[in-house]
Amino acid sequence: MGATKHRDIVVEAGVGERAMNIAFGTSDGVWRLDKGKGGRIGLAGKVVSHVADRSGTILAAAPRDGLYDISDTEHRIWEGDARCCAIDPDGKLYVGIEPAMVFRSDDAGETWKRLDKIDELPTREQWYFPPPPHLPHVRSIDFLPNAERSVVVGVEVGGVLLSDDYGDNWREMNNGVHVDVHTVRPDPSQRGRLIAVTGGGLYVSEDNGESWKHITEGLGQGYAVGVHINPDRAGEVLVATGERPPGLDARVYHSLDGGYSWNRIKESPLPERYDRVPVVLFAEGSAWIATDDGRVFRANDVLGKWSLEYELKTTIHAASAGGSPSSISPGL
């Protein structure tokens, strides 16, 4: 598959010029915020539902197209209906697709293994997606901290899956969680804690998904889509919710106790409500909110002053700055 040089289109920064290294998946390729400017670094004109980056490798999932490596030149390394992607601490690559399946590469995308034990899970035949063609898809892939062989996956609509051997074998972890899972993330500062955002609200597990608790305190909406956990401040979480599918009339909430209670974030210049759920992210020592109209807001402290940092002039679906990525798009 041929390689294409990146086309870089610069947009102006907002307040200040700070060294940053955040990749955004958008309706017009992948953009990066770096050193006070924003520029597209690949896949111009393509919808990108998910991005992941680690140690200089940048992956982008383009629905109904494939998985791209855009670290240097852009080239497709897996062809198909890619919906999400991830890079584990050992450098193994993962792509989640529709219909729901995960593939793994141990050689930087040269070859791929279909992790087909997923097909043998007890409820696999019941997985679905409400709109036609009613096919479930993988929405998130992540890794438990201090468990190097682990893989945790969120399936819409299928639930939470966990592997202890790089995806060769799987268990369903759906005792008490709504199985319309949009994202599931491990808390990097609290061993065993997972947070899942679903079509039925937000859930917290303290035992790596063996059991779940439905959390409602402070949340005014029951359709949860995006979540990100601060790797630098224990217990701090942002969540993006909507009034109804696919996340319309949305709000952002903040937690300081690991997701058990929430307060709404709406201080100016942030919108009081969003037309659709925004991407939430902790990165570069800051909190970030990126919207469907391309605005990128930043705060040193979620409870402090927010500023409009960038306007990318395109819909933002995902963001990553190493570690756990953040996405709010199923790739529709």
Describe the structure in your own words.
Helix content is 0%, strand content 45%. It has 332 residues and is mostly beta strands. The chain has one domain (10-327): YVTN repeat-like/Quinoprotein amine dehydrogenase (Methylamine Dehydrogenase, Chain H), CATH 2.130.10.10. The strands form 7 sheets. A 6-stranded antiparallel beta sheet has the order 1-4-3-2-30-31, with no helix packed on it. Strands 21, 22, 23, 24 and 25 form a 5-stranded antiparallel beta sheet that branches. Strand 11 (101-105) and strand 12 form a beta hairpin.
Protein traits:
mainly beta; six-stranded antiparallel beta sheet; 45% strand; 332 residues; globular; five-stranded antiparallel beta sheet; Methylamine Dehydrogenase, Chain H
Short description:
This protein has strands at 10-11, 22-26, 29-34, 37-42, 50-54, 57-62, 65-69, 75-80, 82-87, 93-97, 101-105, 113-114, 137-142, 151-156, 159-163, 171-172, 181-186, 194-198, 201-205, 213-215, 223-229, 237-242, 248-255, 263-264, 274-276, 279-283, 286-290, 295-299, 306-311, 316-320, 326-327.
